[in-house]
Amino acid sequence: MDSVKIKEYKKGESPFNVVSGHLQAVGAGIKYFVKPQRITLKYPDESMSLPTGYRGMIRLYKDVCIGCTLCAMVCPADAMKMVTDQGKKFPTINYGRCVFCAFCVDICPVDALKETGVHDAAFSNRRELIFNPEKFDQDFDQPPLRPVVRKVKAVIDEDKGIKYVPDTE
Amino acid sequence: MKSGGMELDIVPVSGELNVGPQHPGSGHLRIFVKLNGDIIEDAEIDPGYVHRAVEKLGENRNYIHLIPLVERPAILDSVNMNLGYILAVEKILNVDVPERAQYLRSFAAEISRIASHLYGMGILAIFIGHSTGFMWGFGDREVWVQILEALTGARITNSYIIPGGVRRDLTPAIIEMTKKAIAFQRKKIKDWERIFLNNPNIKARLQDVGVMTREQAIEWGAAGPNLRGSGVYYDARKSEPYGAYSKLDFEIPVYKEGDGYARTLVRFEEIEQSLRILEQVIKDIPEGQILSDRFFKQIPPTRLKKWWEGQRRIVMPGYYASFRPPKGEAISRVEAGRGELVYYVVSDGSAKPYRLRMITPSYRSIYVMKNLLKGARYADLVSIYGSLDYFPPEADR
């Protein structure tokens, strides 16, 4: 065990220190007023592209699936259920329950499930949240009503924290 | 009283006030406050508004299903919550975790701790009327959340740690991100000191407010930074090292005063210590596997080639879907962002735990808060609440 060092802070400051404390606080405020570290993303105009391996919505490759039911077994939220389609078992997913842990993707022995990296989706009714194997077999694509003007990527910056740079891919 | 023709009657007010439970600066928690004037005579803390029955649900789910569930109570500190549970399960399973995975666990846990402290400081700042601090806390936290997103694939619901190891490996791109984030956070903490810690307004709201002596802190069962703010040297990372903490060099900040300001200083210095740990992990992390051999061997070779060699990701063998650990019980302790977190898991040999007990640090703040509120001014309620960094969902579970 290390040597225990119990610290104390300085109490009871002189009026001079109080004034300089206020001035420093205001000074720091002015610094960020002039050079703001704004990280707001103007969403419909700018859209963030997600890193590879992002655990977004999941898609099924129906022709690869062997119907082993492991994905339904490992699902922590009971979002995945198996259905029988022409004598073969396929998973369905209920996005109303899914917690996006991607355990199903990791456990699938034949890689029939894939994380798509898409996560902005809206549904107008709850039945649409349940994807049957046919719907689950396609890449989820929901074009926004107002097209995205530009795609940006979040980059960590030493001065600004997070900086958005245009995604050139 | 007569002065200048105006008549003013001062009537001593006493009565009860109901603070909460819907986040009026109290979190999801109800506090019955008995007031005499603006002095709090007695406070009754009524937790349970966001109770989610994690312990009971734990009895009806497989071990692997519980990973996302145990994260949920303290969602902003999810890696630590996940880690504690996995440590208990690993003790029952009797698995050896590879060195690299241990380092990665510490790496993710420290990022989670920084993010959790920044969140707590942001909440404290807005409670005492400093909305800049609130914005900064949440803005700085975003940097660390981005790193977790790159490492684990999710922003906060990481589910990163699995029995036997971790799910994804550290890549050079993440190391680069972390180095930049460390440099950024060090610079930003300087400005935090100017605008928040050395600000006379903040000092006036926190110094000598909610004073807890060393003896009281021990008697009332305070945990984590609250305990260390009262001059008690105690940290589960030092007293019972897990992960890679026995090989890492870091200090435990301890302050003597025991007031809200001391607790805040402890949290800020812990952020600095966590940054130091991250630097050491980046430098010292050994090469090797990130999943125990016992499970690694069960992964089909074709998948291993595609995922582990191609993308440095672990895929799960089918074993995880419904494994049955041997009969036994285990207890684990981790130092989560808010203090010591204890899991107790009993296995009866089936695929579901017989009992999952979870003792969260915030739950132990309830009694501390009740005692600290007695005799305080009503305006200091939020200051005491914020300085304890109490997180209701974590306490309610």
What does the model show?
- The complex is a heterodimer of chains A (169) and B (397).
- In chain A, 20% of the residues lie in helices and 24% in strands.
- Chain A is of the alpha+beta class and 169 residues long.
- Chain A has a domain at 57-136: Alpha-Beta Plaits (2-Layer Sandwich).
- In chain A, a hairpin with a 3-residue loop joins strand 8 (150-157) and strand 9 (161-166).
- Chain A is elongated.
- Helix content of chain B is 48%, strand content 14%.
- Chain B has helices at 54-58, 66-71, 78-93, 99-127, 131-152, 172-197, 200-206, 214-220, 225-228, 236-239, 260-284, 293-296, 301-311, 361-373, 381-387, 392-396; strands at residues 2-3, 6-7, 14-19, 30-36, 39-46, 161-162, 165-166, 254-255, 328-336, 339-347, 353-359.
- The interface between A and B is large, with 52 and 65 residues.
- Strand 1 (6-7) of chain A pairs parallel with strand 8 (254-255) of chain B, so a sheet runs across the interface.
Salient structural properties:
heterodimer; A: 169 residues; alpha+beta; Alpha-Beta Plaits; 4 helices; 9 strands; B: alpha+beta; Cytochrome-c3 Hydrogenase, chain B; three-stranded antiparallel sheet; globular
The gist of it:
The complex is a heterodimer of chains A (169) and B (397). Chain A has 169 residues and is α+β, with helices and mostly antiparallel strands.
Record the SSE blueprint.
The complex is a heterodimer of chains A (169) and B (397).
Chain A: E1 6-7, H1 15-34, E2 46-48, E3 58-60, H2 70-74, E4 80-85, E5 88-94, H3 103-107, E6 113-115, E7 130-131, H4 133-136, E8 150-157, E9 161-166
Parallel strand pairs in A: 2-8
Antiparallel strand pairs in A: 3-6, 4-5, 5-7, 8-9
Chain B: E1 2-3, E2 6-7, E3 14-19, E4 30-36, E5 39-46, H1 54-58, H2 66-71, H3 78-93, H4 99-127, H5 131-152, E6 161-162, E7 165-166, H6 172-197, H7 200-206, H8 214-220, H9 225-228, H10 236-239, E8 254-255, H11 260-284, H12 293-296, H13 301-311, E9 328-336, E10 339-347, E11 353-359, H14 361-373, H15 381-387, H16 392-396
Antiparallel strand pairs in B: 1-2, 3-4, 4-5, 6-7, 9-10, 10-11
Helix pairs in contact in B: 3-4, 4-5, 4-11, 4-15, 5-6, 6-11, 11-15
